[in-house]
Design goal:
Distance between the termini: 52 Å
Helix content: 25-40%
Shape: globular
Structural class: alpha/beta
Number of helices: 20
Length: about 525
Amino acid sequence: MSIRKRKLRFLFIQPNFHRHYVTFFPVYEPLHGLLLGAVVEDLAETRIFDRRFDTDAALVRLLKEYQPDIVGGTTHTAGEVSTLVRLLDIVKKECPQTRTIVGGQHATLLPEDFYGPSVDLVCIGPGEETFREVVEAMVGGEDFESVAGLKVHKQDDHYVQTAPRDLRSGTFSWPKFNRSLIPSRYKRHYFQCFERRTTVYTITTSGCPFRCNFCSLWAAARGTFRRRLAAEIAADIACQPQPYVHLTDDNTFCDESHAIEIYEHLKAMGVKKKILAYARADTIVKKPDLLKLWKEVGLGALVVGMEGASNRHLKAMNKSSEVGLNIEAQRIMDDLDIENWAHFVVLPSFQREDFQEIWDFVEHLQITYPVFIPMTPVPGTPLFFEAKQQGQLSVFDYGFYNLQYMVMHTEMPKDLWYEELATLYRKSCSPRTLWRRRRSPGFHIRPAIGRAMSMGPVGWRIRPHIREQLELERNIRYEDIEARLPPSLRRDYAPVNYYHAPATMLKTNSNVVNNLTPATADAC
């Protein structure tokens, strides 16, 4: 057993977006790279390479100069699986002895899609502890099979699964991030595109207590829900100079006592920055006083999953909710002068009148910042496997599975379906609409114009990709390409130890995917 005398060299690669991903949302700094660098700071020096804003040639130069011992990466959408693997191919070509590791939601739910000569280790579930132990094993010359929560490449495409990692709900702590690891040439790209200003990105929770069957969040966390230490969150926000804070997790206000504790720390530290967070409509209705407290420390915007514009839409999604809840949530946000970045799910079963119903709802409530999301069976979720089994998937290129495209069969001709979706964005971004909204509660000129500038051109920017998708759907037969598809898209693929979590974590209610509609857990 050989023990290293120097620190290891770790390189984190943030892969570039797939070419079908049309950027019109904020671009995060590589938080995973900062986290992994922090958890092994005493064992390894870290560098971060962000391929979204760099080139392959620059990566090759860095590999030759830095000679990393281990390279890691993660993915944001399924489309980045291929881009990350391609970058790791470059790593193995330039540095054949370098170890490679991948993690994240797709790696956890569908690890087989990463199997190949360029991937040595696949991390299953939240990876901070696992990665620490991987680096410790490298320092001590130990075998990776002693590390829980991994798929270990042995030979050819054969991988050994190590013991499951014992993950539990509760609280967690992260070491302080060293943001100087991010090269200065990248930092101008990490900004809130709607506000047009630089942004602090951080999280307050990990995982999810709910079981929506179209969502990968709870499954990738193996059914756990963890809350980050409140003092640590406040310190992370306060120590950064940026005026805008984006809390990137979905459940900041789910645990009221935890949210109040964060507020108290922010208040005591004198923090007053504009904060954007996520919240469920029922949370807003049940906890308006909590949001009022957070308004004191800068809460200015919420991303709210309103999902449907009528009880008929909500019932079609099997949501245990009523449209009146959405209306009341909007009233509360209006009273508090909080922007509502309302997300509406656009279903494959929609007809022209359904699109019009969403627009009428947006108009009636004077929602300035709506977002219209095609229902997407995110790879690895229950909805994905059910849609695949039911023959509802219409395109088999993961580059389209990014919440921007309709990847299931539609009831109306898909080109007309897309025209209706584009019309929603065109109407909501038009100068005429903004002029009407100018006196409505929650209207703020900077994000309103920023949204219109970012989302307004989406129609023409995404149109060539839609044409390509429709061409594929017309001319490509699944039987002709099945053997070349990622394993998870093949008919014979079945996940082993589904989600690598106890069966009690996997309870979701029945779905209606055969009716071209999604399902959610009753708790949602």
